[in-house]
Each structure stands twice: as C-alpha cells, then as structure tokens.
Amino acid sequence: MRIDKFLKISRLIKRRSVAKEVADKGRVQVNGNLAKSSSNVQIGDIVKIQFGNRTIELKVNALHESTKKEDAQEMYEIVSDERKI
Fold first, then answer.
1. Where does the RNA-binding S4 domain start and stop, copy by copy (predicted)?
2. Which CA distances in Å does 4 have to 42, 70, 84?
3. Domains and CATH numbers, the chain
4. Per-residue pLDDT of the chain (85 residues; tens, 9 = 90+)
C-alpha cells in the first residue's frame, strides 16, 4: 500500500492530498529511509512522521483498503511520540 494512502486510511492525516504533500517534502521515513508519497509500506514497517515540533514513530500492524473511525487505530502501534520544546 502507498504511504500516502496508509496515512489517510489510518487517520493519522485527514486528507490524502495532505499526506502526499507531507511525504514529498521529506517529513516521512519508512524503515529509516526517506519516503515519497508513492513508497510502499508493509506490515512490520517502522514509519516516522514529522509534524512541525512533534515526531511520531509507529509500527504498521495491518493494511486495510478502508476502515471505520474506531478501527483505524488497529492499523498501527505508536513506538514513540516526541515533542521538541
């Protein structure tokens, strides 16, 4: 699954166009490598996302084509959540 689609379906980012923009600006890494919006993500991958002064690192647990709001969090497990002061 493409990283921009994963970010949208897992509801980490609300719109796919925003997820694409974030990835293409170099703010997303998959397994330590910079990811473009078309980069593939698989179960077990570690994804690191930088939101301004916040960095989230998560592990991909599941890939679904669509999810309900309450099921979206099952797609990933947060490994670390850091804020820069």
1. 1-61
2. 13, 20, 25
3. 3-83 (3.10.290.10)
4. 999 999 999 999 999 999 999 999 999 999 999 999 999 999 999 999 998 899 999 999 999 888 888 888 888 999 999 998 7
